[in-house]
Amino acid sequence: MRNIHLWLGLIFVLMAIVFAVSSLVIIYRPWLNTKPRDTELRIQLSRQATATPRAAALALMADHGIKGELRQIQTKLDAVSLRIIRPGEVADVQYFPASGKATIRVRRQGILETLVQLHTNHGLWHDYLPSNIWAAISLLTSIGLLLLGASGIWLWFAHHSERLIGGILLGFGLVFGFVTLVLTRLEQ
C-alpha cells in the first residue's frame, strides 16, 4: 500500500501543482498582469464557407490557423456571429453570408489566464481534441487524488501510535475544507 501511495503521489503531483497555481491566479487575478493581446483580421469567405456557421468555422480553421471549439452561434438580421474557443485563445467571428465579408477578433491570453481556463474547463466531450485529452487527464487526476487520499488514510490507520494526531489533523482538514466551501458559496 505504501508503494501505491508513493506512485499515486508522484504521478499526480504535477497536475495538482497546475490546479494549485491556477487557483492562486483566480484568487489574486486583480494583482497580476493578465492582460490579453487582441488582433483583428478582415477576410473574404467563399460562397461554400458562408453556407452554414459550421462551414465558416471549418474554413477559418483550415485557412487562417484558428483552432478550437465552435460555440455561441447567433444570427442577427443579415449577419452571423460565432466564437471559436480554446484555452488561451478566443476568436469572435462576424460574417455576412450575402457578401462573404468576415471580421475576426482574436484574443490571446498569457500563460496564467490559460491555466485558469484549463482549470475551469468542464465536460468530457468537446469538438476540439486537445480539450478532450485535457478533460480525460483531469478526470484521471481527480480519481488518482481520491485514491491517494484513501491510501493515505489507510496507511495512517494501520499505524496505531499515530491515530490520535492523524485523527486530529484529518478532522481539522475536513472542517477547514467544509468551512471554506461554505464561505466561497456565501460570497457569490
Strand content: 15-25%
Low-confidence stretches: none
Radius of gyration: 23 Å
Q: What proportion of the residues is helical, as a percent range?
A: 40-55%
Give the number of helices: 5
Query: Pairing-aware structural class of the strands and helices?
Result: alpha+beta
Describe this structure in words.
By secondary structure, the chain is an alpha+beta fold. It folds into 2 domains: 2-31 and 117-187, no CATH class; 37-108, Bacterial toxin RNase RnlA/LsoA, N repeated domain (Double Stranded RNA Binding Domain, 2-Layer Sandwich). It has 5 helices and 5 strands. A 5-stranded antiparallel beta sheet has the order 1-5-4-3-2, with helices on one face. A hairpin with a 5-residue loop joins strand 4 and strand 5. The chain is elongated.
Per-chain topology:
Elements: H1 2-27, E1 37-44, H2 53-64, E2 69-76, E3 79-86, E4 89-95, E5 101-108, H3 111-120, H4 129-158, H5 163-187
Antiparallel strand pairs: 1-5, 2-3, 3-4, 4-5
Can I get a quick summary?
With 188 residues, this protein is an alpha+beta fold. The protein has helices at residues 2-27, 53-64, 111-120, 129-158, 163-187, and strands at residues 37-44, 69-76, 79-86, 89-95, 101-108. It folds into 2 domains: 2-31 and 117-187, no CATH class; 37-108, Double Stranded RNA Binding Domain, CATH 3.30.160.690.
From the structure above, extract its key features:
alpha+beta, 2 domains, five-stranded antiparallel sheet, 5 helices, 21% strand, single chain, 188 residues, Double Stranded RNA Binding Domain, 55% helix, 5 strands
